[in-house]
Amino acid sequence: MGKGRLEAFSDGVIAIIITIMVLEMKVPHGTDLAALQLAYPVFLSYILSFVYTGIYWNNHHHMLHAVQKINGPVLWANLHLLFWLSLIPFATGWMGENHFAELPTALYGVVLLMTGIAYYILSRSLIRMHGDNSQLAQAIGNDVKGKLSVAAYALAIPLSFANRWLALGMYVLVAIMWLIPDRRIEKVIHN
């Protein structure tokens, strides 16, 4: 089957996720900087989650660009990814509202971990369908960045209870790692 509906549905869900996150940010009561300063944890968690959502949207787009068709297992793997992405607004809000407390920061890591695993499952489902010699398989290769990301999330979750700022720093570092352009798929497709 064609991939158009899956792409359109995924784009719509991701747009709603971003909309929910921004609507969760409450306008400060007051007109001075002190009122604005109270909102900084919510705003910082929103920025981090917006970046993560953008990273997944971008990579999802590139990955689907490298394939010609999808099947039932791919549809379910994609829904699995969207499920975990849809929990980002909740985890973001809880973490920001509670000023990066230990448990909300750990839960944020759980959501990132499960989203990373779901993305891996989706990529493997697509590779299984298109074959180990497909453009996508060649582009993804060993997926070192993906594996490092999942490992970092898994490490940051328990670290949240020892030092939440180090855990949060790990989430930021993984996001920065993905912001550095990853041209694997573009190189394979345009060659």
Report on this model:
- With 191 residues, the chain is mainly alpha-helical.
- The protein is 80% helix and 0% strand.
- The chain has one domain.
- It has helices spanning 4-24, 33-37, 40-65, 72-86, 88-97, 102-130, 135-140, 144-162, 164-179, 184-189.
- Helix 1 packs parallel to helix 4 and helix 1 runs parallel beside helix 5.
- The model has no long low-confidence stretch (mean pLDDT 92).
Beta-strand proportion: under 5%
Mean pLDDT rating: 92
- The outline comes out as globular
DSSP helix count? 10
Structural class by secondary-structure content = mainly alpha
Q: Tell me the count of domains.
A: 1
Helical content, roughly?
over 70%
- Give the SSE string: HHHHHHHHHH
Unreliable spans: none
Search tags:
191 residues, mainly alpha, 10 helices, globular, transmembrane helix, transmembrane, TMEM175-like, transport
Give a nutshell description of this structure.
The protein is mainly α and about 190 residues long. The protein has helices at about 5-25, 35, 40-65, 70-85, 90-95, 100-130, 135-140, 145-160, 165-180, 185-190.
Please give the structural blueprint:
Blueprint: H1 4-24, H2 33-37, H3 40-65, H4 72-86, H5 88-97, H6 102-130, H7 135-140, H8 144-162, H9 164-179, H10 184-189
Helix pairs in contact: 1-3, 1-4, 1-5, 3-5, 3-9, 4-6, 5-6, 6-8, 6-9, 8-9
